[in-house]
Records
---
Amino acid sequence: MGRSSKDKRDIYYRLAKEEGWRARSAFKLLQLDEEFSLFKGVRRAVDLCAAPGSWSQVLSRKLRGKREESEDVKIVAVDLQAMAPLPGVTQIQGDITKITTAQEIIRHFEGQPADLVVCDGAPDVTGLHDVDEYIQAQLLLAALNITTHVLKPGGTFVAKIFRGKDVTLLYSQLKVFFSGVTCAKPRSSRNSSIEAFVVCENYSPPEGYVPNMSNPLLDHCYDVDFNQLEGPNRIIVPFLACGDLSAFDSDRTYPLQVTMVTTHIQGSTPVGPKTFKIKDPVNESVHVL
Ligand SMILES: C[S@@+](CC[C@H](N)C(=O)[O-])C[C@H]1O[C@@H](n2cnc3c(N)ncnc32)[C@H](O)[C@@H]1O
């Protein structure tokens, strides 16, 4: 007898059905918690890219327990898609790369920083690895940007990451804000997938860093605000004009005329514009400047 498509579903899919989780992803967060004790002392949490809501379920069950009313527990879940309500979870339908969504999340946490931000965001996979990795990285950076506004010093940020060729750049960016950055792969995450999770502990932004929504990654808008940033929010590197002032000006047009003959011998030091040969494409003859 052939196997039905239901039989072929993996063990975590079946366990999720049995235990009432909305998605098998719930086990990824539970297994990350087993290793990192993510929920210890957490009262306020943000779940970015939350639909259909299994991570929010985990947060709700772990932070609220069996209590019907847990006034001091606050969970905010955000996704492009609407999701069915969950006890104790405030939902925002929006795009985490948009400033307006970020601002809405921040409003919910006014005066009360979050202890934990999690993000399981994934783009619709195109199959073009470079594009998928780029969009995934953009989601992670958008999540990081929101995190810098709402997370308390010492707090934890957990996010899905694609271990592509440029992943070390992301690690470096995360290390600017967190003293501990670990790449973790839960057993429930398929080995065939480049998916993993960064667990970023002890939020400690650079001294003087002011969270700022003019991050150019948001809305793909390199607006002037970005050039107004100061202190550790803006890194300025030295700009150096190089070359002899008498060298050819690359913005000028020079006539194809024989003016002077000097040969540049390989290995010798070129001496300004006088050592330049130009081949006239029309006459195919060599002119020497
Ligand atoms: C893998 S699912 C998340 C599963 C979820 N953690 C759970 O356990 O049920 C990825 C989610 O990311 C959301 N997403 C992708 N891009 C987004 C964006 N720019 N803003 C908000 N959500 C986004 C998708 O709508 C999708 O629901």
---
Amino acid sequence: MFLLRIACLFGRHFPNRTDVRWVGVETVAPCRACGRQLRREGKGKWRAWTRVDA
Ligand SMILES: [Zn+2]
């Protein structure tokens, strides 16, 4: 959704809580708006994984 993607540009993402998974000690989920993989950095704080091709 376009408005959500604008928020993504400002670093606010919307993790898909039905697709949360654990990778080692990390909690990751795809963003519902932009589709990037997010990593949980704290309570309610998610950050997109930095990728070279992002
Ligand atoms: Zn996003």
